[in-house]
Amino acid sequence: MPTAIVINRAQMGAGDEDLGRKILGSCLRKLSSFEDELEAIVLYNEGAKLATRGSCVAVELGHLHERGVDVLVCGTCVDHYNLGDRLLFAPASNMDDILATLRKADKVITL
What is the pTM of this model? Predict the structure, then answer.
């Protein structure tokens, strides 16, 4: 069952930012056990910041990407936040590709 994870914030949940970054990292590490089902991670709005060198989850996203998980980063968001020179997963994606990925997923989970 193809699954897509959507991350639209630079942390998981609302409240304490340090805690939110910590639990997001833990969640992404645990997702490696779902790699047969996990098809894509979609990053938009503040979530796009996570796909840059030095982000709090750069290592975890890199491991998932190496295992075949597509990491789609909103190009409009990359431009808005001026992230192009630090982007880990180039080229940035576009809304057509993001929507096509979400459409073909059997399950979409927003963190």
Answer: 0.92
